[in-house]
Specification:
Elements: E1 4-7, H1 17-26, E2 31-37, H2 49-55, E3 62-68, H3 76-81, E4 86-90, H4 97-106, E5 110-115, E6 133-137, H5 152-165, E7 171-175, H6 183-189, E8 193-196, H7 198-202, H8 206-218
Parallel strand pairs: 1-8, 2-3, 3-4, 4-5, 5-6, 6-7, 7-8
Bound molecules: D-xylitol-5-phosphate and zinc ion.
Amino acid sequence: MERKLAPSILSCDFTKLGEQVAETEQAGTQYLHIDVMDGLFVPSISFGMPIIKSLRPKSNLVFDVHLMVENPERYIEEFAACGADIITVHAEATRHLDRALEMIRLCGKKAAVALNPSTPLCVLDHVLDRLDMILLMSVNPGFGGQKYIPCMTDKIRQLRSKLEQEGRHIDIEVDGGINMSTLDQVLEAGANVIVAGSAVFGKGDIAANTRAFLEAFEK
Ligand code: DX5
Ligand code: ZN
């Protein structure tokens, strides 16, 4: 599966949001990961539609919107309208996962499910036909800059092997604690969409950080 980098704007300096997104875009990233937090599904509140709307005309990146929001079906149409390309809902956040995924498709967007670290893969069993991507959280959602949970590597491997056995070409995105030291193991296990917040925007040069990931993808 083709590898993509999805820098998470949660770690941006918000006074320079447009410039920092342009820096990673010019350095060659493919996706932009946008973490929406509601203060209920996760403890923090981040940002919502106005930020996405204002970034949309400034960027050609694929907007990968990760909804850490209770009952996300309330907002799917709005996120689709303000510029999301991929919409990810958490399996734990909705009683009606199948319906939420159908709504995303009806809006003409790519649909994905996210699983918290402790959520078993079997919750995906009856929705695989509806999915373009599966996001495996490798930290507990809510904050950037946390440490990768090592046993998530096995979870990625199990999911990739299940998808391969069934002949399904579904992207596996991994989110949380990915940096130059944890990257190889998640790639090797079969993840192909890599979220990186602090490792791209947190410190150092954004373009150089972006290129380091893209170069590591080629190895
Ligand atoms: C955490 C978010 C992540 C976060 C990742 O709840 O979903 O996307 O920005 O940040 P890092 O890469 O710093 O762990
Ligand atoms: Zn995220």
